[in-house]
Amino acid sequence: MTYGGGGERTHIMCGFLGTDAPNDPVIKALPSLLKLAVSEADSADWIETSLRFAAREMAAGRKGSLPLLAQLAECLFIEAVRRYIESIQPHERGWLAGFADPVIGEAVNLLHAKRDHHWTVDELASQLGLSRSAFAERFARIMGEPPMRYFGRQRLRFAAQQLRGSHETVARIGFQAGYESEAAFNRAFKREFGIASAAWRIRSAASPL
Description:
The structure is a single chain. 63% of the residues lie in helices and 0% in strands. By secondary structure, it is mainly alpha-helical. It folds into 3 domains: 25-87; 95-145; 149-206, Arc Repressor Mutant, subunit A, CATH 1.10.10. InterPro entries: AraC_lig (IPR032783), AraC_XylS_family_regulators (IPR050204), Homeodomain-like_sf (IPR009057), HTH_AraC (IPR018060).
């Protein structure tokens, strides 16, 4: 490709990361263009070295390069997202903004660390040293939805991943997601993803990883 002229030849390396997780909150929260300026990052040396290493691996075509480069791409993506989170202004709302808030970030960590625990708003507020109303208001204002609705959506996302990656029964996965009956789980799953859990499992099994 020729564009302009007079400068040195530029090498452009392209790649992609994909996810089969439905309604992924990270992807939805990111802007359409996310730029990681290497010179402005604290980890500038590591980023530049990683990119040069990836370019050499791709050019050499050595055995085992693909899984190695996949892991490296994930690390670079995580660094880019971390840099973006640090740039989020305090007044901004959304999933990533929650991690920038010390209280909501801790609440989200608790919810994800103990996914099988039947959390309540009162218990979370107590863990964080806030009143129920103060915690619920702060969570909803920053995350854009009440804490228990957020928790329910994340457990359903986890259930969707289990449907694809495990051989557990639908009823068992629904129970792990906090539903006492398979029927209740199926209703919630279809409401969230627009498709029944069994149909989701069949469709996802037929698609490539």
